[in-house]
Write a structure and sequence with these properties.
The structure holds two protein chains of two kinds.
Chain A lengths: L1 H8 L25 H8 L18 H15 L4 H12 L14 H28 L16 H14 L1
Chain B lengths: L1 H29 L2 H31 L5 H6 L6 H6 L5 H23 L7 H22 L5 E5 L4 E5 L7 E2 L20 H11 L1 H12 L7 H31 L10 H26 L3 H24 L13 H22 L16 H32 L8 H21 L10 H26 L6 H32 L3 H11 L1 H26 L1 E8 L3 E4 L2 E13 L3 E12 L2 E6 L2 E5 L4 E5 L1 E4 L3 E10 L6 E10 L2 H18 L3 H7 L6 H17 L1
Antiparallel strand pairs in B: 1-2, 1-3, 4-13, 5-6, 6-7, 7-8, 7-9, 9-10, 11-12, 12-13
Helix pairs in contact in B: 1-2, 1-6, 2-5, 2-6, 5-6, 5-7, 6-8, 7-9, 8-9, 8-11, 9-10, 9-19, 10-11, 10-13, 11-12, 13-14, 14-16, 15-16, 16-17, 16-18, 17-18, 18-19
The chains are: A mainly alpha, B alpha+beta.
């Protein structure tokens, strides 16, 4: 349904809400808010209707209107944060590109960090256990002369370990 | 008539696949070779049968037989023959059949090539591959049949799809088809999807061998790893090519100035690549040292499961909305299949743990072994973070009912440090010796790259610090140059040893060095390719600039040291049913004219969908990527442009290319080389000796 709606909204003529004022950008400063200001805010938002599309690059008519709305809000003196809060209030948390670090969504941040830390601990344990388990130096390249019987070698190894 | 033939080819394939799996198991259990032979023959026949089915679908797509539901869905009169053929994988029914077809090709090849060598494993390899194939052919036959037709129901005046004529309904043939999604109407359609599918399906071979080795109790040997080494590399190569081509395609088509958006579908492809890369590295631990046997089995099970999971995500759209899940029987069947194969494989592994004992222990914490284990941890950490971030929106919707987005900021912050650590390890890990690395010696070999990279970083920092004061970017530059130098030094060292030992000319020595140790130096070339890509990522991540503005004819828009001057705008009809609006603009660098760019917007009239086509001025240093975002409706006196300056982005593509070359070198190992090059640190006798010694030591306790 939403897709149909979007397709309907996208019209061939690209009835495009271009800012009325065409400003020369050679030297003369662009009045606030410029398109770059709008994109700075839109970048932090996701299109409320299209799947997985950041608002600053979304091409649908709906998103063009949202960008125009951001422009109006910035012109009215809103801060970036206020605009973002407005969008969250209107369309829900899904418009945030970066999930919040509080509430349930904090899990998305916590778990990868935790898993890497746990992984490091486990890896350290495994490496240490491998090292501790080392019964004989099974060196092939520099193996001791083969005429030493393995039992003697093992005892030697054991005693050496007990000494250290 | 023809389509009935395709339908029956699919049906017979399904029956044969089931028979083959059953006969293989029966033959293995009862030790009756004729059943195993028969299973193999059945498996071999499936490939030509599915080929026939694929050809019939392609025939329908090219000849535009719109009575076929799939043809009406993805093909259209305006599409070129090239695109009509690629429409085979442009929609769901075709993709699933294509998947099954590729996999049957892989399995047929493996049965022909490896039949004599791995007799004992073969029945179980047949069982596993045919089991997987049964799922996909079954899916294609029962759930998303590509040979379904359109029927008109006079009672409701609706159109339905069914393979056979429902009672009282008439065949329905639309005038034209929907055609491919406009974004897919691109030359890249021939590259990215098939390579990705080859990568996904290719991993079934090492997985099947691993399972066969587990079942026969031979997973402790490295036979299954040796047999499948090249298969794994080829699958991994295709997946890598698929990733790079996908990135390039996104860059050329999606019109947002980037190549990787951490979209669920992209992530779905990255995950098996990550675990597959970990697997490719850690099998060396098994081959050379007899270690990490369990872990390698886990990795290949994970990789295979993630490849199927990736197909599941891509084809069902479940991440975009949980509700897509229930729309067809696809979602539930996929989920059950992934769960059953994953859990079943793990269960089997746990039952066979006794065959997977580690043969060797560790001499020192500072060793190649530790580096490999750490590397595995990092790859798995990244894979988990990607998996978690990709599936979390679904979890959130199920648990709290709130839809959320997990976008690029999350993935960059979480995986960025891990990728950084991985790149560092990639530089120093290959210098570590097996068993024990003397710290002093390591320090001495790394001194030169370290000093060199610090000098490069300081020089780079001094040249642009005031405009771009990014400490993290400088750290990235240091990391990249350090690893690049350390990798190059390995080549230099090896070649120099030959120059001294054999008295060869340096370049001859380099050539010989590489041809004698293809696996090793192919690997280093791959590493170097990764470093090049990392440089591109650092450039794109930290130094990217963009601006957007509306300018009239003759006016300009400036960004970084570039200036774009708008000339004019025109409209004309293009091929493939599109109306094109094209702007002409001149690009100046530091005031000097460099290029005329023509960014476009194509409107696909039937689909009512616009596609933004960027105009790119590309140099090794940076791309200037210009988009036509909008224009003044009346009089066309002004246009809105968005300009991205993407520094170093071409290093990503050049790195990808180097990467592929390196992989080809590593794959291109003749059997003689394999025997000569794989020095094994554990000949049969000392292993037995080590075991008996540990047995004695154990009994003495």
């Amino acid at each position: 349904m939403t897709r149909k709606l979007i397709l309907m909204l996208v019209t061939l003529s690209a009835s495009f809400a271009i800012a009325a004022v065409v400003s020369a950008q050679d030297g003369t400063p662009v009045p606030y808010p410029s398109d770059d200001d709008v994109n700075r805010v839109a970048k932090q938002l996701y299109c409320p209707v299209c799947p997985n599309t950041p608002l600053d690059v979304c091409e649908t008519k709906a998103c063009q209107d949202w960008r125009a709305q951001i422009k109006d809000q910035l012109a009215a003196g809103w801060t970036d944060e206020q605009v973002i809060q407005y969008f969250v209030a209107q369309y829900g948390e899904r418009v945030l590109a970066e999930p919040r670090r509080s509430g349930f969504t904090s899990f998305v941040w916590l778990l990868p960090v935790l898993s890497v830390i746990i992984g490091l601990v486990v890896v350290a344990q495994i490496l240490r256990s491998w090292k501790a388990r080392r019964p004989t130096p099974v060196l092939v390249e520099s193996a001791p002369s083969p005429d030493v019987p393995p039992e003697v070698l093992a005892r030697l190894e054991k005693e050496l370990r007990e000494m250290s | 008539m023809l389509y009935d033939l395709g339908y029956f080819a699919l049906l017979i394939s399904f029956v044969l696949v089931l028979y083959s799996a059953a006969a293989a198991v029966f033959g293995a259990q009862t030790k009756r070779a004729e059943f195993i032979e028969s299973a193999r023959n059945a498996a071999l026949v499936v490939f030509p049968l599915l080929t026939l089915a694929v050809l019939i679908v392609v025939y329908g797509l090219v000849t535009l037989d719109f009575s076929q539901a799939y043809v009406a869905d993805v093909s259209s009169r305006t599409m070129s023959t090239f695109l009509r053929v690629t429409a085979l994988w442009g929609g769901q029914q075709g993709s699933i059949l294509f998947w099954a077809w590729m996999m049957s090709g892989f399995t047929a090849t493996v049965m022909i090539r490896k039949w004599r060598r791995d007799r004992e494993l073969m029945p179980w390899v047949i069982f596993v591959t045919m089991g997987t194939l049964a799922f996909f052919v079954g899916l294609s036959f029962f759930i998303t049949n590509p040979f379904a037709r359109l029927w008109h129901d006079p009672a409701t005046d609706g159109i339905i799809t069914a393979v056979f004529q429902p009672k009282g309904m008439m065949a329905y043939v639309p005038q034209d088809g929907q055609g491919l999604n406009p974004l897919l109407r691109h030359f890249g359609m021939i590259g990215h999807p098939p390579t990705t599918y080859l990568g996904f399906t290719g991993f079934v071979i090492p997985y099947a061998f691993a399972i066969a080795a587990l079942i026969t109790g031979k997973a402790g040997d490295d036979e299954w790893i040796r047999t499948t080494r090249r298969w794994t590399l080829v699958a991994w190569l295709f997946l890598s090519i698929g990733l790079v081509l996908g990135g390039r395609w996104a860059y050329d088509v999606l019109g947002w100035g980037g190549y990787w958006g951490w979209d669920p579908v992209e992530n779905a492809m990255l995950m098996p690549w990550l675990t597959g890369t970990a697997f490719l590295h850690s099998v060396m631990m098994h081959e050379k040292r007899g270690m990490l046997k369990v872990w390698n089995v886990v990795l290949i099970i994970l990789t295979y499961s993630l490849a199927v999971f990736g197909t599941f995500i891509t084809r069902t759209g479940v991440i975009g909305s949980v509700h897509a899940f229930a729309k067809s029987a696809m979602g539930p069947s996929f989920l059950i299949f992934v769960a059953v194969t994953f859990l079943g494989s793990l269960l089997l592994m746990f039952r066979r743990l006794n065959t997977l004992k580690t043969e060797h222990e560790l001499d020192s914490l500072l060793s190649r072994e530790s580096a490999f284990v750490l590397q595995n941890l990092l790859f798995l950490g990244i894979a988990f973070a990607v998996f978690w971030g990709t599936t979390f929106p679904m979890i959130s919707e199920l648990v709290t009912g709130t839809k959320i987005t997990v976008g690029p900021p999350f993935f960059k912050q979480v995986t960025g440090p891990l990728f950084g650590a991985l790149v560092l390890l990639m530089g120093i890990g290959p210098l570590f010796a097996w068993r024990k690395q003397a710290a002093g010696k390591l320090g001495r070999s790394l001194l030169l790259p370290f000093v060199g990279s610090v000098i490069i970083t300081i020089a780079a920092g001094l040249s642009h610090w005031p405009q771009h004061p990014y400490p993290l970017a400088l750290f990235g530059l240091w990391l990249v140059s350090f690893v690049a130098l350390a990798t190059l030094l390995e080549f230099w060292r090896g070649a120099r040893a030959r120059v001294r030992g054999q008295g060869e000319n340096f370049f001859v020595a380099l050539g010989h060095l590489m041809s004698r140790n293809r696996r090793r130096y192919g690997g280093y070339i791959i590493h170097f390719g990764v470093v090049m890509m990392a440089l591109g990522v650092v450039g794109d991540e930290f130094y990217k600039e963009e601006t957007q503005g509306t300018i009239g004819a003759g006016q300009s828009l400036a960004v970084a040291n570039y200036r774009l001057t708008f000339e004019d705008l025109r409209q004309y009809p293009g091929s493939d049913g599109r109306e094109i609006i094209e702007a002409t603009a001149k690009l100046y660098r530091d005031g000097k004219y460099v290029a005329t760019l023509k960014p476009r917007r194509d409107f696909f009239v039937t689909q009512q969908q616009p596609v933004t086509v960027p105009a790119v001025y590309s140099t090794p240093g940076a791309d200037v990527y210009v988009l036509l975002v909008g224009w003044e409706d009346i009089g066309w006196s002004a246009s809105t442009f968005k300009i991205y300056v993407n520094p170093l982005i071409n290093w990503v593509w050049a790195g990808g290319f180097t990467f592929v070359i390196g992989t080809l070198i590593a794959v291109w190992t003749s059997l003689d080389d394999e025997r000569a090059a794989s020095y094994v640190l554990r000949p049969a006798a000392p292993v037995a000796y080590g075991r008996s010694a540990s047995h004695i030591a154990g009994s003495g306790r």
